[in-house]
Design a protein that fits this description.
The complex is a heterodimer of chains A (about 400) and B (about 140).
Chain A lengths: L7 E7 L10 H16 L8 E3 L8 H9 L6 E3 L7 H14 L5 E8 L32 H16 L3 H15 L13 H5 L3 E3 L2 E2 L9 E8 L1 H6 L5 E11 L13 H12 L8 E4 L4 H11 L7 H5 L18 H5 L7 H13 L13 E9 L5 E10 L1
Parallel strand pairs in A: 2-3, 2-4, 9-10
Antiparallel strand pairs in A: 1-7, 1-8, 4-7, 5-6, 8-11, 10-11
Helix pairs in contact in A: 5-9, 8-9
Chain B lengths: L19 H8 L4 E5 L5 E2 L14 E5 L3 E10 L5 E8 L4 E6 L12 E8 L6 E7 L10
Antiparallel strand pairs in B: 1-2, 1-3, 4-5, 4-7, 5-6, 7-8
Chain lengths: ~400, ~140
């Protein structure tokens, strides 16, 4: 059994805020929920499936269903695989719809790390001592940025990747962000700007990192009959794949990611190849995140990511693979420190032909959205979607 | 050439019933890894249930303390430090810090050796690594 063609993304909404000093996290969840339902032309009364992850305060779907006012739920799923959760949720929603467990699934993400003054990437987090890895990592100062730096260093060592090549990823994102009125960083930057920005975790510079922002987003996934009865262009879920990768008892290899597996699974289900993809949303917590995933998804060979991203190859209208045309996490936003849902939202915009005209990919009928959650340097979730415009 | 890293006192770990032996051994200058009694395969961090094989028991054995630098990052924090994965002679790649070094002279693949650094509070020693004496790069220092 496959989910191919069994579910559609009928609603997508990105919160315009980037700093929500006067809003609560639960309020942001409710606002994006209503935004996505309005976009779809549906209401809360239509929702019978709800999906959220660790950013949802309280006891996930219980607290959020209560607060938002969802009273007809017959299917919930709060699988938390960090920033990749919401892509995985789309796949799980499609499964639930295919099995008749729900008809209209709502997925929400929201958070306000910027207002809370969180040093997301640089502060080691003590975590829960019962988490078995904490005592073997926290004393060493493991933080988000240096974990990705470990991946970057090893990639440079094995394949000769350079800081300048990584910088091209930020350059491409900035070219897109200049057209997004909501983006936090709208200034177009150069390779020199990136490599001359302050070092955070060698070899990653400040501009190799994503932004820290408040905000959120939501998606509505429905059965195809319902999607076709609505007024929006129909975006079908053609394939979904997920994977988990970790330290493997010390046999870790930082040169690849779970995208190698989740991507292959999604492409197989969709019956397409990377060469068929017109637009790609690629998780971009750091520049190295993008490079590793592009290789693992099969857009280029392992080790060739540096050459692939250089010279504007990811810039819409310039290169062969337009990516993150909203500016991505690197320039636009990274709500709740989780960039998964915004990856799906921009892919939906592209497939509907509703991206900014300056970055819209002509005749974009097949797109990929990919997310990573957790940390590439230790353990992470990986989720890939292949989406199609009917 | 840069300067030697300043000393950083790491936060103390919170041992649990399954790791007490590991942290006790660290007080005696030993780095324990897990080894499957049947397959001989080593793992890290050590845990009572082998992550690889359904058969065999896990015994905790002391690593030689010799290894090589798999990857590292010089963290430009208020008190800078080098975080790394070191590949032990026995196989596992383990998260650690490289201490008592000039971060600008580190290179992937170089030999490192085990040292212990006392942590905050009661001074529980934490296994870390430092460039080994026979490091050929040392000649250029």
């Amino acid at each position: 059994m496959s989910i191919r063609g069994k579910a559609c993304i009928a609603g997508a909404y990105e919160h315009p805020t980037r700093k929500a000093e006067n809003k609560s996290t639960a309020q942001l969840h409710a606002e994006v929920a209503l935004g996505a339902l309005r976009d779809a032309g549906l209401t809360r009364a239509d929702v019978d499936g709800y999906f959220c992850a660790g950013d949802a305060p309280g006891m996930g779907p219980l607290s959020m269903a209560d607060y938002i006012g969802l009273d007809r739920l017959r299917h919930v799923d709060s699988t938390d695989v960090g920033g990749s959760s919401y892509l995985l949720h789309v796949g799980h929603a499609a499964e639930a719809i295919a099995l008749g467990k729900c008809n209209v699934a709502l997925i929400t993400l929201a958070g306000r790390p910027r207002s809370e003054g969180m040093a997301t990437g640089t502060a080691p987090r003590a975590g829960n001592p019962a988490q078995p890895d904490v005592q073997f990592e926290y004393p060493y100062g493991a933080a988000v940025a240096n974990m990705y730096a470990l991946c970057a260093r090893r990639h440079m060592h094995e394949f000769g990747t350079t800081s300048e090549q990584l910088a091209w990823i930020k350059v491409a994102a900035s070219h897109h962000a200049q057209h997004n009125e909501h983006a936090m960083l709208r200034k177009v930057v150069t390779v020199e700007d990136v490599v001359n920005s302050p070092m955070v975790a060698d070899p990653l510079h400040r501009l190799d990192c994503c932004v820290i922002s408040d905000g959120g987003g939501a998606l509505v996934v429905t059965r195809p009959e319902i999607a076709r009865s609505l007024k929006r262009p129909v975006v079908s879920v053609r394939g979904a794949g997920e994977a988990v990768k970790h330290q493997m008892g010390g046999q870790l290899d930082l040169t690849y990611t779970g995208a190698r597996f989740s991507g292959a699974r999604a492409f197989e289900e969709a019956g397409v190849t990377p060469a068929d993809i017109k637009y790609a949303s690629i998780y971009d917590s750091f520049t190295i995140t993008v490079l590793l995933q592009l290789e693992d998804l099969g857009f280029c060979e392992k080790g060739q990511g540096g050459r692939f991203v250089a010279d504007g190859n990811l810039i819409s209208g310039v290169g062969k693979l337009p990516f993150n045309t909203d500016g991505g996490g690197l320039c636009n936003n990274h709500p709740a420190n989780r960039g998964g849902i915004t990856k799906v939202i921009e892919a939906v915009r592209q497939l509907r032909g509703e991206a900014h005209p300056a970055v819209q990919v002509p005749n974009c009928n097949l797109a990929l959205a990919h997310g990573t959650g957790g940390s590439l340097g230790t353990r992470h979730g990986s989720a890939t979607l292949v989406l199609e415009r009917e | 050439m840069g300067e030697k890293l300043p000393h950083r006192t790491p936060p103390a770990p919170t041992p649990d019933p399954s790791t007490r032996a590991f942290w006790d051994a660290a007080r005696e200058g030993k780095l324990l890894i897990g080894r499957n009694t049947k397959t001989g395969k080593a793992h890290y961090p050590p845990r009572p249930v082998c992550p690889f094989d359904d058969e065999g028991e896990v015994e905790y054995v002391a690593a030689s303390g010799r290894g090589s630098l798999y990857t590292y990052s010089h963290m430009h924090a208020k008190t800078p430090y080098v975080i790394a994965y070191v590949e032990l002679e026995e196989g596992p790649r383990i998260m650690t810090n490289i201490v008592d070094c000039d971060p600008t002279t580190l290179r992937v693949g170089q030999k490192v050796r085990l040292v212990f650094v006392p942590s905050e509070g009661e001074g529980q020693p934490i296994p870390m690594f430092t460039p080994a004496e026979e490091n050929p790069g040392h000649a250029h220092a």
